[in-house]
Amino acid sequence: MTRILKLITFDVTETLMMFQPPVAVKYAESAKQFGINVDVADVLKNLKGQMKLLTKQHPNFGRDTIGWNVWWTQIVVNSFKLAQPSSDEKALHQLAKFLIDEYTTTRCWALADGAMDLLNYLKQKNIPLGVISNYDDRLEPTLKSLKIQSFFNFILTSYSAGVMKPDRKIFDLARAQIPGDILPESCLHIGNSLEFDYLGAKGAGWNSAYVGPSTDEVLKIVSSGEVFKNLEELKKQLKIV
Fold first, then answer.
1. What are the structural domains, with CATH classification, of the chain?
2. CA pair distance 154, 175, nearest whole angstrom
3. pLDDT higher than 80, residue 53
4. pTM
């Protein structure tokens, strides 16, 4: 992949930073500290259901309705209530606050393999770097805890922008963060979601790189030269001119 680029942006969740440990495991282990014992499989199932429900009822982490903090509190409380209806209400809210804070730390996140090397390489090329993420207001402190915040010229979340990927408006807003008239074809977005990252960027006229397995489904949508199994492979093949 050889490109003349004036802006490179990244998705973060499961692109630059990975859940560690898995979310359901972290939730179930944390619950024990508050006297709540649930099965990991139940937590995982309930979390998926609650995420889908709240995303429909209150899009973009409740930005225009209940706000992200209440949004996540409801996700946690309702997920555990479904798994253990007799759970103490006060303990559930304490657990929710604990997890909301915990997910800004390295106790829940780790950098993806090759992330630091890729960021250092791109920074040496003097290309502006940014983040475009469907995320709430906790992203900046989270990136700071992972020691990568300083690599980015801007960090654009769906919550601050008022629009979510794959809407082209958030990609247009990202371009506007950099002085000068940067054309879409001079921009590259890197992410792990076909819908939100790869197709979202393509729909905005950007170049796109998909990071993930090259399954038959993926190759029906993404050209082989734009699929990379991980960030290490992307760094090897990305030629900046």
1. 7-19+111-237 (3.40.50.1000), 23-103 (1.10.150.720)
2. 10
3. yes
4. 0.95
